Structure prediction request, 519 residues.
Amino acid sequence: MNMTLSGSGAPRLQRNWDSRAACNFIGGGSGAGLLLAAAAASLSGWPYFPAGILAAALIGLGLLMVWLEIGRPLRALNVFFHPQTSWMSREAFLALPVLALSGLAILLDQPFVPLPFQTRGPVAVLAWAVAAAGLVFLYCQARILRASRGVPAWSEPALQWVIVTTGIAEGLGLLLLLSVAVAPPPAWAVAAAIVAVAARAGAWERYRYRVKLNAPAQAAAVLDRASLSIHLFGHLLAAILLIGSLAMRPSIVPAAVAGLLLFASGAYSKFVVVTRAAFTHGFSVPFMPVRGRTGVALPLRG
Amino acid sequence: MTRYVMVADLRRCIGCQTCTAACKQANATPPGVQWRRVLDIEVGEYPNVRRVFVPTGCQHCADPPCEWVCPSTATRRRADGIVQIVYDLCIGCGACAVACPYEARYKVEKREFAFGNEPTADEHIGADDSLIGVATKCTFCADTVDAGVARGLTPGEDPEATPACVNLCISGALAFGDIDDPQSRVSKLLRENKHFRMHEAQGTNPGFYYLWDQDAS
Prediction:
């Protein structure tokens, strides 16, 4: 039955998770993506430690923001109690090897304090191990949102691919941004960023379509409003700059600007999804109570 | 087996909010927190609009999504179907609140009082700091139910073993009891009336039924 509810039964914006939770998805996603990009870049002779430090800092910052949001921060270790079904527990477990191994890889790769066992081999192995753990960490973040069944725009399965593709695109973007300070970007990284932009744009559009079908109209309207700037700056302009950079074999400045756009638009899209599109189901009344003397249910039109 | 459920007769509910007040008094919930509340809903579009009062709260689902997502195992379902929160374990992450399709969970960050900075006598008695910074929700007055059962009373029949909202409902719209007992009041009501559960498509198997018409068969 098609019914329109208003009053206290209408969908409302959830207030349980705010911008601090959004920061966890922004920091964790971009950090995990950067770990992957840094591992790949290390094969091209890039130093691991600058990207590794930034990635670990972003993930750590995201977790810190969550810690600041929980109501009982001194009980934070209880987050590890339910990995059987809770994606939040699994995310916490994954954070341990991600931070520990990336820290070790950074230590082995840093040039400032010479260590007797410092060689490239272990760094490459560690970097790929951290990248793999980071990808699982990123997937856990996507599943945390999907498990939030009280918020249709989060539980929509298409959001998983937005989170994953956005994390990878953000990571590549940050790597390109770091190229200003570290070294010219590898050509493959610029090409991979173009692919990531296309994948993220596709995932975002599919997500919007699914939200229109399955979530409150308010959520779809929020995503519609945000989409223009995300597409314009995060996809179109970024893609033009990346293609231009690639054509110039590859040029640092346009690649770095594109990288900044990739990160900023990814962060903005996650901020919008977590804090503004998070409308609840509202309440549903599929049958109206039959009152009065007729004993006949009145039909509803609407 | 026992599964405690609640039944709300939408034909009888008049939206008086006595159940809401009874819950607040029994559980000393702070301002803005209503474990039991009655929605005042307009259905339809002008000129074909109707109004309905819908008591709601935690639905004590048989497959509660809040339990699945809880990272600390604070949320757990008892053998009798009551979904409870172990407040000493809860970290207040809010995952359960965003997982609940029924907007049944609350979290307050600090003690607040209904009138100014000082608690009323009732608030002073009922204040419980273990409920600050953690998720809270309707418990089906589990303490009352447990105490009543221990004394050989029947929840839903004996007021001393029945949730406060059901006891004080002035129109008899709310009923409570064991749905696995065919002789219970809730089983009888569900046999004799057409009913639905909210958001059944979510697959949570909620334990809160709404009556809307008598069963012609």
